[in-house]
Amino acid sequence: MTTATALLAIRNLDAGYDGVAVLHDIALSMDAGEFVCVIGANTAGKSTLLRTISGLVAAKGSISFQGEELVGRPSHRIPGLGIAHVPEGRHVFPEMSVDENVTLGAYSVRGASDLAQRRERVLEMFPRLRERLTQAAGTLSGGEQQMVAIGRALMLSPRLLLLDEPSHGLAPKVVDELHDTFLTVSRTGTAILLVEQNTTLALSVASRGYVLESGRIVLAGTSAELSDNDAVRSAYLGL
Amino acid sequence: MSRLSPMRLILIAVLLAAAIALPFAFDPRGYAIRILCLALLFGAMAQAWNIVAGLANQVSLGHAAFFGIGAYTSTLLLIHFGISPWLGMIAGAVLGGLAALLISLPTMRLRGHYFALATLAFGEVMRVIANSWGGLTGGPVGISVPFAPSSLAMLQFKETRPYYWLMLAALIAVTAIFVAIRKSRLGYRLRAIKENVDAAEVIGIDTTRTKIIAAVLSGGLTACLGTLYAQFQYFFDPDTVFGVGSISVRVAMIAIVGGIGTAIGPILGAFFVIPLEEFANQIFSAQAAGLSQLVFGVLLVVVILVEPRGFVAMGQRLARRFRREDRS
């Protein structure tokens, strides 16, 4: 994996809120279609990393996506490049219907003539959503809301999908379903950058991972390597 | 947002016919018809306010700024250049929209109370300027619209009825604009911003620009209504048209009491708040100083405590209860 061909290449990235630095000297890279996870404790800066890629957090350094520099770009200009973000906490639009939520996902696609096809593809992936198209998204179960948020993101037909703590607050059974959802999405060729506190889930779906601690990447490797790493086992897997 | 059913169309047609015929039931030079005119005008203002506050949840307490700009622009153009208030209204709308743009640029990033306070300050600044720039506005003494023979072209009538129809047309027009915006792409963008700003940004909505567009439309429309007010009252001063209590807060309150974000809410709110205020004044103002305002305030507090989302939500709750009883 060389940075020349990488889908996403992050170098020397510092980021934070109102002068309080959260991320320090981050380096991370992903190839097209790859499934990568970032694990770490609460407050390690995992969400900030995704929010920085999406332009929601001020940053210094470089985030290159398909050769385009993202640092300094306003956040609403980023989805159009092919990056879809599913924010933490299932950010659906609660009073809009499932259909409205999903359709709004293609909002930044200019002159989309294939909107119906995109919608069809998403609904095929999530048959449950088809049953609830007219229901207000806020009245769905947690797992279903997560599906809406992911489905909305997929309407962009993104090259890269950013998933922020998708398992947070979900029942174990729903987490199992999510597992399948991720693999379904990954099989379509979409690269996924997954941030998770549920380390077991993250390492079971992603092929590679980074460990984030106090805003720095302290470890990187394949999921198998990380699962075998003693520090990871004791700190994050509770073994 | 389903298409209008035939039943609803008929209902709207009947209501409209009744609204048009209503002034014939009142003394044409009386007091009651003037109250109706004000209720229609304030309903239209609350509806214009609703575009930015109801759809995007940016609650402004400075809409008097745009209202006053509209009133002063058309009146000054009429006094100094004899320009028809209709053209003055257009000029006022442009200036009102421009003012909304200027105030939005620095404040639209603010949310909730911070935005409300910033807009409140803006309205007050306009009031102070109008009071101290006596050479232009006449200052605290106020300004009078020069009399002209009754005509639609000069927007002046001896009778009150034409004003009533004018205000009714304004309310219908602003309501139609509100409904059209709500159904448009702009409306979806605004609703997405209201429900979740970050989620709106990450699906590619330029949230600041969207809110500014809504504010400019809202400010421009409010300025038009300021012109109507000036032509209706013939006399106004900075404290009336730029007032916090007389305009900014009252407009916000009307929409909130009626049902913020809905098309019918500002109309219900206006026909509750404006007559109630007059009624309280009539009954209580002779008894003790401030008593009427107190009664008016208490009644509003009761309404908000019973249902913070206004009459529309109250109606929906009642309708649901009836349906449940039908089934059982």
Automatic annotation (TrEMBL), chain A:
Keywords, in A-Z order: Amino-acid transport, ATP-binding, Nucleotide-binding, Transport
Signal peptide feature range: none
PANTHER family in UniProt: HIGH-AFFINITY BRANCHED-CHAIN AMINO ACID TRANSPORT ATP-BINDING PROTEIN LIVF
Entry-linked SUPFAM superfamilies: P-loop containing nucleoside triphosphate hydrolases (SSF52540)
Molecular function (Gene Ontology), one example: ATP binding
GO BP annotation list: L-amino acid transport
Entry keyword Transport: yes
Name the record gives this protein: Amino acid/amide ABC transporter ATP-binding protein 2 (HAAT family)
Superkingdom assignment: Bacteria
Gene3D superfamilies: P-loop containing nucleotide triphosphate hydrolases (3.40.50.300)
Domain spans labelled ABC transporter: 8-239
Family indicated by similarity: Belongs to the ABC transporter superfamily.
Taxonomic placement: Bacteria, Pseudomonadati, Pseudomonadota, Alphaproteobacteria, Hyphomicrobiales
UniProtKB/TrEMBL annotation, chain B:
Database matches in InterPro entries: ABC_transp_permease (IPR001851), LivM-like (IPR043428)
Transmembrane portions of the chain: 31-52, 59-80, 86-105, 163-181, 212-232, 252-276, 288-306
Keywords recorded for this protein, A-Z: Cell membrane, Membrane, Transmembrane, Transmembrane helix
Molecular function, one GO term: branched-chain amino acid transmembrane transporter activity
Subcellular location: Cell membrane
Membrane topology summary: Multi-pass membrane protein
UniProt GO cellular component terms: plasma membrane
Name recorded for this polypeptide: Amino acid/amide ABC transporter membrane protein 2 (HAAT family)
Taxonomic source organism: Bosea psychrotolerans
Taxonomic lineage: Bacteria, Pseudomonadati, Pseudomonadota, Alphaproteobacteria, Hyphomicrobiales
